[in-house]
Amino acid sequence: MNSSDYYKIEGGKLVRTHRSCPKCGPSYFLADHYDRWSCGKCGYAVFKRKGQTKAKATRRSPRKRSKA
Question: Which portions of the chain are predicted below pLDDT 70?
Answer without folding.
Answer: 1, 3, 50-68
